[in-house]
Amino acid sequence: MIRPATPADVPEILNMVHELAAYEKAAHEVRVTEEQLRDTLFRDHPAAFAHVAEQDGETVGFALWFLTYSTWRGVHGVYLEDLYVRPQHRGGGHGFALMRRLGEICAERGYQRLEWSVLDWNEPSIRFYEKLGAVNQDDWLRYRLTDEPLRRLAGRRD
């Protein structure tokens, strides 16, 4: 079963965020708290949205996403920040069901893009996404500023 996340799901989503970060060899980078995640997902104008996958009353996966905007197409799209299914539940259709729900949201709302990033070594995920018909945007390079370089850009020393 796929359903929108509720505030009661936040602790379990946070646990899965930690599991995903460990899988991606980046556990040391997770800084988000339950309070931050709850505020992000459930304030008056949420910055992001989440859906959870359940099996027999147990939360087995989640998708966390936010809206993007294409100046070329003139409409919103969805950026999938995280898709995670617990290892013992992979292969059971939960990832596909979460992706299908996001596809349905795009279709219902007239959004024309569903995008995400995947680590280049994550072959199981790459195969899964390509099976869905996703196309690698290998002509684009992804860049990021965080921490000190971002503060420097902003002219801040704090």
TrEMBL record:
Molecular function terms, GO-annotated: N-acetyltransferase activity
InterPro entries the UniProt entry points to: AcTrfase_GNAT_prd, Acyl_CoA_acyltransferase, Diverse_Substrate_AcTransf, GNAT_dom
Keywords for this protein: Acyltransferase, Transferase
Keyword Acyltransferase: yes
Keyword Chaperone annotated: no
One family name in Pfam for this protein: Acetyltransf_1
Every N-acetyltransferase domain range: 1-155
Similarity remark: Belongs to the acetyltransferase family.
Protein name per the record: L-amino acid N-acyltransferase YncA
